[in-house]
Queue: 4 jobs
Job 1
Amino acid sequence: MVLDDRALEREMRLNQLYLAIVSRYRDYIEEMEHLSVAELSTLVIPKNPVIAKKADEIKSSFGMYNYVSNFYEASIIAFYFVKNEIMDAVMPLQFWLTPEETMTFGIGDVIDRNILLCSLLIALGNPSAKVLVSVKNSNRSILAYYEFEDRAYILDFSVGFKKFESRNELIKSLGLDDDTVAYEFNDIAYMDIA
């Protein structure tokens, strides 16, 4: 669908209007956003029908999907789906999207996209998948990781895939120290790690 100049201008003005409305009520919206950081695990929803359907679509690319033989490649497909098909957006307020909303709208911030990726990895059969958030000074790092066949793998939208010999080696590579706040979560648990 090609928008003519007038329709494009209308869309831009509508978006500016929506942004002005959201900005005006930002404090109220953020106050009503009741999830705490420790409750982020409730957003990881691998059994959601939209997430399960996407996981099944990825599995079907292997014919007869076998977790041991195909999970690693399936995780790469899931990673590139989220990286390339779900637009990154910086929201004007702190608001958590569900993975279903992130898929439906095809857009989300870095944490929304990582929560979607984690949900897909679990739906593909790997319950060890987690979202890991670390904050040091004003720098925040968010990525997904999983353990598979005695190794650990980081999936980072800015860096790509990295393989480690163990979860401990992966955690050590992040350079967490006393000035770092770090936590991880999936659909089962939330845990402070630094």
Job 2
Amino acid sequence: MAGEKIALHRYLSPRGAETMRQELKHLTQKERPQVVEVVSWAASNGDRSENADYQYGKRRLREIDRRLRFLTKRLDQAVIVDPAAQTNRERVFFGATVCYADEEDRHTTVTILGVDEAELTRGEVSLQSPIARALMKARVGDEVTLHTPSGPVLVEVISITYPV
């Protein structure tokens, strides 16, 4: 394994991994059994071709099973990285919360997380996003170029923090 390159999409924070485990548990122990019960009841009612409960239930089971396969595979392959354990806190790495300013001195703060856990509405960006790629390994005071659809934008790193 030494020297093996790890795919970035495998990175997850401990919080992200726990969220996925909780969803897996909910789907397995609660939602799927309930849907199976409805499908079994609907199947016992006879003609399945015009039985909306049966058809909807079967479709929902396929969706649940697809999500279960996805979650199981992602968790099996995940590389759990705890941002609190980051020793080089002067540079931007996975889990960093970074404040940067653009050329108009507008400040933006983002936290860099895994592709399966980042939620832009919470100020979180994927490790593979253009802003994360531009900020990676930068230090406070560094200027980096962010490539946007409207062209390159120069941004300056104002602060870098990690959870404690």
Job 3
Amino acid sequence: MLKAQGYEVVETHILPDQSQILKRHLVRLADQRQVNVIFTTGGTGFSERDITPEATMEVCDRMANGIAEAIRYHSLAITGRAMLSRAVSGIRKKTLIVNLPGSPKAVEESLGYLLAHLGHGLGILRGTDGECGGNQ
């Protein structure tokens, strides 16, 4: 889906549910690789091993709560179980980090909803777009 929208996917990883490993990858991708956006999938539920939101919050400079809230709101129209998501979104330097659900179907639905607005948000973050852009 990302490639179809013109995004370059530079890395993909399957990581264990371990906070330190996840935080190390998030920091490396944001600080060294300076990627525009990082998507995590899974680890956002209620089980003890679901640590993705906490790891994300620990590495972010600022939170972007509206993104996670909008994805949850959109997902609630599909399934009431969306209320069980603890996903967050935040910013580390010039990199946006977005937690997505774990199931491939939910990832596709979430990305499909988010991608229409992502480019403008990344442009503002990177300083290439202005804040005013209409209601698109």
Job 4
Amino acid sequence: MAFLEVKDLEAYYGKAQALKSVSFNVEKGGCIGIIGPNGAGKSTLLDSIIGLTDWRGQIIFNGVDLHRLTPRAIVKLGIGYAPERGNLFTYMDVKDNLLVGAYLAREKIDENLGEVFEMLPRLEERQKQQAETLSGGERQMLSLGRAFMTDPKLLLLDEPTLGLAPIVISRIADVLENLKKTGITIVIAEQNVTFTMTHAERLYLLERGQLTMGGTPEELRGEEYISKTYFGV
């Protein structure tokens, strides 16, 4: 059994269907990428896994069916989420934002906080600074660090490079590679195909709410449609 199994997933916003029969698996310790254009349903897919949408089908994590579980219960099972929109408490400082992420993993606060500061030393430098004063890259790092504070076994990353300068993307890439070494299972949803191909072991193309293609980075790089649409070749 795969660590995360998504089968025939359909998600809705009211009567509008956002995902249509989406199916894929992630093995324990693996890193996969969901690529596709803006509005394809990537965020909706991650929101569904964490319990934030009205969905049908099956999502099974580590042998547990997530249907009808609350987001709190899902996080407690070991799923962390760093959303694109960040959802930071801008009036709170960096350290307090991180501690909010630890509310279901209080027994490991010091250990996890130490690891976050080791991976993201910028956050340690800015730990007393209000989140609203951070740069876009620092906010993304804080969102990632807060997700790690939940002590996740599975980490969901939504557009971790969106709007960031190349030097900041490079720092995020280093953090991602360090996370992979810890054995955490990772799902990345990204428009940045080059970034995702570099770090994920397998990719799925999501367009108009449907998975239209899947394979290793090498396999997808050789697809004419991917080359023309996402690389302009």
